[in-house]
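Protocol step 4 of 5: obtain the predicted structure for the target chain.
Materials: sequence only (see below). No template structures provided, no constraints applied. The aim of this step is simply to have a reference model before the mutagenesis design in step 5. Sequence pasted as it appears in the construct record:
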Amino acid sequence: MKILTTRLTGAAWILVCLFWATGNLLWATPQQTVSGTVTDTQDHSIPGVSIRLLNSNTGTQTDMQGAFSIQALPSDTLSISYLGFKTLRLPVGNQTTFSIVLQQDITDLGEVTINAGYYNTTRREQTGSIARVTAAEIEQQPVTNPLAALQGRMPGVFITQNTGVPGSGFQIQIRGQNSLRDNGNKPLYIIDGVPFSDSDMGDYRTGIAFPGEVSPLNSIDPNAIASIEVLKDADATAIYGSRGANGVVLITTKKGSSGAAQFNLGYRYGTGTVQSHLELLTTLQYLEVRREAFANDGITEYPANAYDVNGTWDENRYTDWQQVILGNTAKYLDINGSVSGGSERIQFRLGGNYHRETTVYPGDYAYNKIGIQTHTQFKDQADRFQASLSSNFSYQTNNLPEMATLLTQIVQLAPNAPEVYTPEGDLNWENSTWSNPFAILENEYQSENPTLIVNSQLAYKLLPNLELKTNLGYTQIHFNDQYTQPSTGYNPAYGYSAERSRIRKHSSKRDSWLIEPQLTYSLTWNEFNLNALLGGTLQKNNASQTHLYGIGFSSNRLIENISAAERQFISLDNATTYKYAALFSRINFSYRDRYFLNLTGRRDGSSRFGPGKQFSNFGAVGAAWVFSEEDVLMDTSWLSFGKLRGSYGSTGNDQIGDYQFLDTYTLTGSTYGNVSVLEPSRLYNPDFSWETTRKLELALETGFLKDRLLFSAAWYRNRSSNQLVGIPLPATTGFPSVQANLNATVENRGWEFNVTAIPFTSTKLNWKTSLNLSIARNELLEFPDLEGSTYANQYVIGEPLNIRKTYDFQGVDPETGIFQFTDFNQDGVYTAQDDRETFQNLNPSYYGGFQNSIQYEGLTLDFLFQFVKQQNYSGQFLTSFPGAMGNQVPAVLDRWQEPGDQAYYQQYTTGYTTDAILGYLRYNQSNAMITDASYIRLKNIALTYKIPKKWIPGLECAITVQGQNLLTFTKYSGFDPESIYTNSVPPLRVFTIGVQLNF
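Step 4 output (structure tokens):
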């Protein structure tokens, strides 16, 4: 009986539990649908706002009209958050409809998520140096290349545009030049997790459309970018090991969001013109110079080939060759669109873009780009498994002509040279008295550049605080171009036929795959937090190049068919493979949310080094102290945020190209005994290894008046040693150098400052302003036996790497009228080795930007001033000696004419006065040719008006007027102070008008 009672009692308890559970289900308060809209203080709807139930995984996002809907209990609390706005928490209660207004909080250091590569952080918690540009800033600029959107916006990041030709590249230096090799200073690019280093992207040098490398970053549509982060110090870059020695540029593209499908459509149209010109002589002034030069040389009867002064050419004609060659108006067209949406578990985004730019050159030439971007992400219902797949495909074409040669004609042509074309429209050869510069336009250039980037990320939570990830990436880049030179480009008087026609074809292909497994672990215990990361990298790059030449055709109609050429040559046909492997780890500690310690380690392996030298270890330590959280400062009204941080570590560099340690041989194209001849092209040296850069940084970050005023200052010092350079060899070896490590040390140090303020904010008017300043110094600390090496005329210990050793200009001798220079060794003879002892630093002394964003109701004005303090070669460097056939700058008119004259320029000559010619050659290599090239430039301006949404229900419309490179304030006498190539088109002044539709 007792046993039965016990059993009944147990059954009773089970029934009670079931009844209690059922009662909770039957009589519990049911969930209700809570809906509403989210707008800013100007009553503009905000799409993509995160709406979540506090302490729950349930959430949604607002659609393009800012509307949302979610199931919630009266006891729940809504958490509403969006980047750049203050987070709100609203209890649900019995309210089912909300009209939520978010207040801007651009300086909220704890809410803004920063992409640090393998992990995310915030401004408040970061221990490294990371600069960031958002999509809003990028979209305000009419740019083709993402790097153009960074100019003047980031301290420590110096970017220059190679040329104003569409599709050209950019030069970027992150905290200076670390390596003695020009190709050893490129940063690492990461696009949605896929490494995309510049050395992988291409040695594509067409030498046709523009100088420098073609930038494959053009394949990325700036409108599809969500943010760009630049990692600078050791703490931020060490996790990338050798690939991050010169900094890391992280490009994150836009993703999809849950909710109803959202459509975006953007259209921009504009024009571009050359904003600066070189001041040159008029025809009257030019002929005066020429005649005086002949007189100085004792020539009274002008030679038969002096067509400009002997009456052959019209002495009253004047041609502005800058206007003829660069005077056209470039057209700019950009169309982009996207659709995104999904559920809480699956989101997608599909985007596309079309871009077309013509040029300022004469003729119908254009750069075209079309692209497709996709992104899909998924997570299971238990929120344990997540997967994403993104892709970016672009196809670029370019038919820009060979302009480098034509651009030099701007100063080499006489202002009274003949007309380019005859009245009938044919090339004018003026009775064979000149080489018509436009004959080069008979040549045709065509290129195509398809690029594919694919990335997949898989993640699975093994435990609530333990997650396994895998990053899979694939990249493929093709670059094909051809250049035809038909016989029609020659003077008909030569009688050349298609037998002189030729074609050059070039094909390059690079593909890369990547696997990166990762394991992350997090732990929270009282006020202590731990985050750990362990991962690995396997990467393989394959590259191939082919160069073909064909000469001689039966007809110019067959010129594009190289098999129709009488003679064909294969000048290059090679393939290379690069393999890279690494293990990396990161441990981050934080205590009481105010003390942070970050430890990073990486072991890298590269196939570019010989046996026993392929692996090396790199690492860094970073620490931060948020001192404003200390009790003594917690109640301070004026200080809202204060942090001290520092880092030290090392990174490596293997950017030397493949197979540099091996004996290599090259096919010469010749034969011996009907057998192709191989020639040795490189000496064997398996002993060289990694360059090493050690980075040190100390920084202060502060916020005042509730973060309405932010100030940060950072001091850094990078020292790069074990330089990978070619060690010079005696000529008797048959090789100019052998690849090896040189015990030279390069130091980059400097200060970076950033000030951000919100001078005024209200419900209608908001004004944000910021200023960044970088003061940098580059110095060669050590270089063993420099004076006895072939680098003696290039580098000086204690001076920057980017210097020019020049003669010291002392003016014009009043008695002889010849340029004078300092004779440093006082031997009466001027030699480059002994007397070029003046050093001119071509690095910027300081640079920065001043940007503002002013918003009044639906009208927003954004503008940026960029400033640089630097030196560069003057415009006169492009010209020949005054008196030769070719135009000059007006400065040469202040010349010596007779003994006793005090003049800037020496006596003129046509080439027959030896002392004057030697004086000019030294003058061209003296400090007189290098001048102040500092400038302040209104880099970009954008005026945007958002049409009130009540005017067109269901549609958001913004109209924008944008400008790029609008005004330049400078004393520089050359084409443009930014251009690093003297024979390049200056960056164009671009105006666009556009419309953005969201629905």
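Step 4 remarks: Residues 1-30 form one domain. The first helix runs from residue 2 to 27.
Proceed to step 5.
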